[in-house]
Predict the structure.
Amino acid sequence: MGVIIIDLVLFGFLVLAALAILRLTNLFAVTMLAGLFSLLAASLFITLDAVDVAFTEAAVGAGISTVLMLGALALTTREEKTLATRRAFVPLICCLVTGAALIYGTFDMPAFGAADAPVHTHVGGEYLQRTKPDTGIPNVVTAVLASYRGFDTLGETTVIFVAAISVLLLLGFPNRANRRKQDEDEA
Amino acid sequence: MSMFAVALIAVFVSMLLVIARSIAGPSLYDRVLAVNSFGTLTVLLIGLLGFFTSRPDFLDIALLYALINFVGTIAVLKFVRHRLLGAAKPQHDIARKTNGTRETTGGQP
């Protein structure tokens, strides 16, 4: 019961932050509120026991995205231009219908944390029993990621590493490279 | 009502006040400070949630949030002050010096 109230309060704050993001025209305030929104989402993930997802949300949403948005903000103005607003009923109805359909879809899902949900009856039990004798790692999630799916994780890490290198190459380190070139020119 | 429930209510009330401050502003530093305080309140919330549900396993995660919050605030403030995170030298005069070799450096300020 208590956890439900906590969830409702956090969702209420989330809606408050989202409405404020929509209504405000000061872009710096919007950026800051987006970071705040991410922290709220991370708190909600924690109430669902998904601490790793929550941590990613906090690091990426509240940390990196805020800095990236500020970087974009440095290239533009501080205030949003307000256009003459027109009441857009068709998009609103589309959103409401889609949202209602998605919520209707959740009614078929098993209850939150139910032991007889399909995800718990398939191979989960097998892993829980065999992880300790197989690998000796106490944390089952870590064992699955780093041992059973070791090559998969290695591939993922490689992809992220290559992506990071590509982004760095695209953005470049202009100062250092140019300074070296400048030194060569002078020499 | 347990002690942790009362503490949670206090944290939620503070969160509401901090959200109000970050919406109302008025100055830039009010908002930076509001988000920083909100991060601290999130740390408290994680700790309290653990003890409220009597599974305080994620207390070390709260420490990580405190670190991220600190680094994030420094990054935002540094950006506000310098408009750049890494380099301190403006880019256009370098492009001018080495012009001809790098003409398309992009329209950076």
User: Anything to note?
Assistant: DSSP finds nine helices and no strands in chain A.
